[in-house]
């Protein structure tokens, strides 16, 4: 610019009200971490918080989420409604599938929805239903597990969100399994930790777990021939184990061992980062699902509540590992959420009273500290345990 030229004026977004800033701060310091749990670059914490200052749709979704987490349900409802009023006219526009601000707002609204499920665990998936179509349109033919953009980060939040209803209802996740997952980068030993590589390896396990759920919960609809179904079971088992064998050493626990005297019944397992805890949990969830739903000559599919006795203990070893990881990383709330909905698969097999008490305590704390509804699942578990 020459000295005489008129300086360009950058429009300044309207300043936040104090209440809006309070909820945005709570989002960035507490609950954005839930959305970033497999993203080492922490895009929701760092990028979405900034974007919200100039996007009312995103800001209102965030306020609703933060208020719901704090138990301020009136504010949560008010701002959810304000967000939806702004969102609805945009749903018919052609560019919405490529608007990362909108995609982020919708996955945040989806968390609000999951935080307000009924006492029976009923979940209407209003936002998830619309979100599915949008995210399918946003990804093209391939999905990058390193999630280099916000729209891809939103896609991975959506993938994890789909696990809730998949487990609770034992139905396939509402995902497009025609997408081709790009492979994670090869592990280079003794190099500095790379956030894109860390994210890619965590999300790769997330996707493998999703494909395992798709197989297990589709029943004979997916593979009518038992030989084809058995072949697919072996392929998935190999994919799960191959990830475990080839993952970066950063994903290994800092410590793993039997609990100290008086420390509770579950193993002690400590990790470095949220995405390591999440990948560990999805690995063990995938392993237990493959155990429970292994095809046999007698059943094309085996109901989760009709597992054969010889596999019970193997399933419980994976369940205890998941419990131990949650106990060791109480700040990784999405790991506790995974634990919560996975209990539908293995909860009836937990017959030890000390383990039952410790599990219930973790679930009660998840609702008491983080507003995630668990009372209904505790009631279901206690009813199952009373039959033993």
TrEMBL record:
Coiled coil: none annotated. It is found in: Nucleus. Keywords: Nucleus. GO terms for biological process: positive regulation of transcription by RNA polymerase II. One of its GO terms (cellular component) is nucleus. GO terms for molecular function: DNA-binding transcription factor activity; transcription cis-regulatory region binding. The keyword Lipid metabolism does not apply. It holds the Pfam family Fungal_trans_2. It comes from the Eukaryota. InterPro entries: Fun_TF (IPR021858). This is Transcription factor domain-containing protein.
């Amino acid at each position: 610019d020459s000295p005489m030229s008129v300086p360009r004026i950058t429009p300044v977004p309207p300043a936040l009200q104090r209440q809006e800033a309070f909820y945005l701060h709570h989002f960035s310091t507490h609950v954005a971490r839930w959305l970033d749990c497999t993203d080492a670059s922490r895009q929701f914490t760092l990028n979405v918080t900034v974007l919200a200052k100039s996007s009312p749709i995103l800001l209102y979704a965030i306020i609703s989420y933060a208020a719901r987490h704090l138990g301020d349900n009136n504010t949560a409802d008010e701002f959810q409604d304000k967000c939806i009023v702004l969102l609805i006219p945009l749903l018919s526009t052609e560019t919405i599938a490529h608007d990362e601000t909108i995609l982020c707002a919708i996955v945040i609204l989806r968390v609000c929805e999951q935080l307000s499920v009924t006492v029976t665990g009923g979940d209407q998936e209003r936002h998830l239903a619309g979100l599915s179509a949008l995210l399918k349109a946003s990804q093209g033919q391939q999905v990058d597990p390193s999630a280099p953009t916000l729209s891809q980060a939103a896609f991975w939040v959506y993938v994890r969100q789909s696990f809730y209803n998949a487990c609770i209802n034992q139905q396939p996740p509402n995902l497009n399994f025609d997408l081709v997952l790009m492979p994670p980068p090869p592990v280079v030993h003794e190099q500095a930790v790379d956030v894109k590589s860390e994210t890619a390896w965590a999300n790769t396990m997330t996707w493998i777990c999703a494909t395992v759920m798709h197989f297990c919960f589709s029943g004979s609809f997916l593979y009518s021939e038992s030989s084809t179904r058995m072949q697919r079971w072996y392929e998935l088992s190999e994919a799960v184990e191959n990830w475990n064998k080839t993952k970066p050493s950063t994903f290994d626990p800092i410590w793993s061992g039997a609990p100290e005297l008086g420390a509770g019944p579950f193993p002690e397992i400590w990790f470095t980062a949220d995405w390591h805890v999440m990948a560990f949990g999805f690995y063990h969830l995938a392993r237990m699902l493959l155990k429970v739903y292994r095809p046999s000559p007698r059943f094309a599919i085996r109901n989760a509540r009709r597992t054969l006795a010889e596999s019970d203990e193997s399933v419980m070893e994976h369940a205890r590992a998941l419990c131990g990881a949650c106990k060791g990383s109480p700040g990784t709330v999405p790991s506790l959420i995974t634990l919560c909905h996975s209990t539908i698969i293995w909860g009836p097999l937990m017959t030890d009273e000390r383990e039952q008490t410790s599990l219930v305590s973790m679930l009660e704390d998840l609702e008491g500290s983080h507003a995630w509804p668990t009372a209904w699942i505790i009631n279901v578990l206690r009813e199952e345990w009373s039959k033993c």
